[in-house]
Specification:
This protein is an alpha/beta fold. It has one domain: Ribonuclease Z/Hydroxyacylglutathione hydrolase-like (Metallo-beta-lactamase, Chain A, 4-Layer Sandwich). 24% of the residues lie in helices and 24% in strands. It has 7 helices and 15 strands. Strands 1-2-5-6-7-8-9 form a 7-stranded mixed sheet. A hairpin with a 2-residue loop joins strand 1 and strand 2 (19-24). The longest helix is centred in the C-terminal third of the chain and has 11 residues, at 193-203. It starts with 12 loop residues before the first strand and ends with a helix. The model has no long low-confidence stretch (mean pLDDT 90).
């Protein structure tokens, strides 16, 4: 997905029953990374919006066509830039943030902080795990059992396209160019490798095949083995 606007699909599109995604451009240090939002339909017909992108006219129309927004999730300490627009647009929805986000974004009145236990709104429908060994992210990873899908944000990337030498060099140095992998930077920032290993082992107990992530192409199959290989260094 990274590298050029032709890879972005602005309309919400289905990837599995009750599961949709949309992409938008996003730059980091001048490098086009791209980003992805995931939408899950809950059993009551409401929507959980994960890692929200800009709430433009297209996104608002598509969401309203799928159902009422019940939850907006900022799943780590970086994916929060567009949350405020969803506060205003969906006052009946509840907004959840990763640990540490309420302190970072004191302007946003989060309804709750995410933990390893799913809140009642989606308990039994989505499972979740806080990757606490990487506190710079405090990423919350989700598992959607009905579609055997793991929903992540920055924990792994799958950069298949990168336009321009600076972008290719950046992703190559990061260990994510042309492959599904965890960023090399995360290896340097993990505080407790033993705790990280415990978290990954717990995650690998989940029965998933697909991996939806924020940066790069969705991995449609082989997700558990890909995750296992990406964290074999622990």
């Amino acid at each position: 997905m990274a590298g050029g606007s032709r890879y972005y699909q602005f309309m919400l599109r289905p990837v599995a029953p009750d599961l949709w995604v949309t992409e938008r451009p996003q730059r980091l240090l001048g490098i086009e990374m791209g980003t992805r939002m995931t939408v899950v339909r809950l059993v009551d017909g409401g929507l959980l919006v994960h890692s929200p992108v800009q709430l433009d006219e297209v996104t608002r129309r598509d969401l309203d066509g799928l159902g009422p927004v019940r939850a907006v999730v900022a799943p780590n300490r970086y994916h929060h830039l567009h949350v405020s627009a969803y506060f205003a647009a969906y006052p009946e929805g509840r907004v959840f943030g990763a640990p540490g986000l309420p302190e970072k974004r004191r302007d946003l009145p989060f309804h709750a902080v995410l933990s390893d236990e799913a809140p009642p709104l989606w308990a039994g429908q989505l499972h979740q795990l806080v990757f606490r060994a990487l506190p710079v992210l405090n990423e919350v990873v989700f598992w959607h059992p009905p579609t055997r899908t793991l929903i992540t944000t920055d924990l792994v990337s799958n950069i298949r396209h990168a336009e321009g030498l600076p972008a290719r060099m950046f992703f190559w140095l990061d260990g994510t160019l042309g492959r599904f992998n965890a960023s090399r930077m995360w290896r340097l920032l993990v505080r407790d490798r033993a705790a990280a290993r415990v978290a990954i082992d717990r995650l690998l107990l989940w029965d998933f095949d697909r991996v939806v992530l924020a940066h790069g192409d969705i991995l449609e199959t082989g997700g558990r083995q890909a995750m296992r290989s990406s964290f074999a260094w622990l």
